[in-house]
Design a protein that fits this description.
- This protein folds into 2 domains: 31 residues; 234 residues, Phosphatidylinositol (PI) phosphodiesterase (TIM Barrel, Alpha-Beta Barrel), CATH 3.20.20.190.
- The chain is built from 13 helices and 11 strands.
- The protein is globular.
- The N and C termini lie far apart (62 Å).
- Strands 1, 2, 3, 4 and 11 form a 5-stranded mixed beta sheet that branches. Strands 5-6-7-10 form a 4-stranded parallel beta sheet, with helices on one face.
- The longest helix is centred in the first third of the chain and has 37 residues.
- The chain is an alpha/beta fold.
């Protein structure tokens, strides 16, 4: 009897230990999942554009090395339907197009990339952005205009660069492409969204678990991407004033995140440390939407004393899920600290 009792007692002890191990495994998995959910990401806005001309391969390589989680690509089409990485449908504010092709502007005086073939576009040099009205540099203290040599490149060129750097560095940096002005492209008979989705699928980006987030300001087009083109990618609905909380419920039907301007978050409602912010983030989180605002820059401190103070307010006080920044190194270093 005592022998059987000892055996049963031993079995109970082993079972208890196994239950404890199983519980610890579950707890560990839960903590890991929570950490992944709470991870705040650094999105390199047009690359490391605080240091090198925006959307150049050099700027993207620098952003990758600086610790960005995602690198952004704004996409527009050439005349021959090739997606090129560029912020606007215009060429004249960041390239020397007026010198290379002086007779190719439209009646409004602007040079549209959609009027040029890829081979023509690749001849152009890229410089720091100017204000087209004043012809003055947008950020005078950044990389000097007209120095060194930078070129435009295709979306596929950049994907191959990022994937190649991931392989050689062991990192897993993602891409964050934006469909630019889909209505303009449709007006010219071009379906930019379908072209971009086909390229993404070619390179292995087609579901939410892939390291790709697709963004657009055009809500109708983002809905089309989700429902008509049946994309299962992680989607971000970019926002502008007067977009607000009333739109969030609609966005939540098809998008996974929202991208409001930073200034929209530092206004109205509740005061914290002398600053104010809206409850857009709280409401977005209730709807399971991530919040990735734009754009954090050292030249635009929004009333804060320094860049770290702005970062602390955005990431710690506002509890944003990530941000677009021209300075991925400073933002990544802050989050590591």
């Amino acid at each position: 009897m005592s022998y059987l009792y000892s055996i049963n007692n031993f079995a109970l002890i082993i079972a208890a230990k196994l239950n404890l191990v199983f519980y610890l495994i579950l707890l560990s998995s839960s903590v890991m999942a929570q950490n992944q959910t709470q991870h705040q990401i650094v999105i390199a806005h047009r690359g490391a554009s605080g240091y090198l001309p925006e959307h150049t391969m050099e700027s993207k390589s620098m952003a990758h090395a600086m610790g960005a989680d995602y690198v952004e690509q704004d996409l527009v089409l050439t005349k021959d339907n090739v997606p090129v990485v560029m912020h606007d449908i215009y060429l004249d504010d960041v390239t020397d197009v007026a010198q290379i092709y002086p007779d190719r502007s439209r009646e409004d005086g602007r040079y549209y990339i959609i009027d040029f073939t890829l081979q023509e576009v690749l001849r152009l040099s890229v410089n720091e952005r100017i204000n087209i009205k004043t012809q003055q540099l947008e950020f005078p203290n950044r990389f000097p205009r007209g120095k060194s040599l930078f070129r435009l490149h295709t979306f596929e060129n950049e994907i191959e660069l990022i994937q190649g750097l991931n392989q050689s560095s062991g990192k897993q940096v993602g891409i964050y492409p934006e469909i630019k002005n889909p209505a303009f492209h449709k007006k010219h008979g071009k379906d930019i969204s379908k072209i971009v989705l086909d390229i993404l699928k070619k390179y292995g980006y087609h579901q939410k678990t892939d390291r790709c987030i697709l963004q657009c300001f055009d809500a109708a087009e983002l809905k089309r991407i989700r429902f008509d083109l049946k994309s299962d990618l992680f989607l971000t609905q970019l926002m502008e004033f007067p977009d607000g909380i009333s739109d969030l419920k609609d966005y939540a039907h098809y998008a996974d995140a929202v991208g409001p301007p930073i200034s929209q978050l530092i206004v109205s409602s509740y005061k914290i440390q002398g600053k104010t912010y809206s409850d857009l983030i709280t409401e977005a989180h209730k709807l399971k939407l991530k919040v990735h605002p734009y754009t954090l820059r050292t030249e635009e401190l929004k009333g804060f004393s320094n860049f770290d103070a702005l970062l602390e307010f955005c990431f710690d006080t506002l509890n944003i899920d990530g941000a677009f920044t021209d300075f991925p190194d400073k933002t990544a270093n802050f989050l590591r600290r």
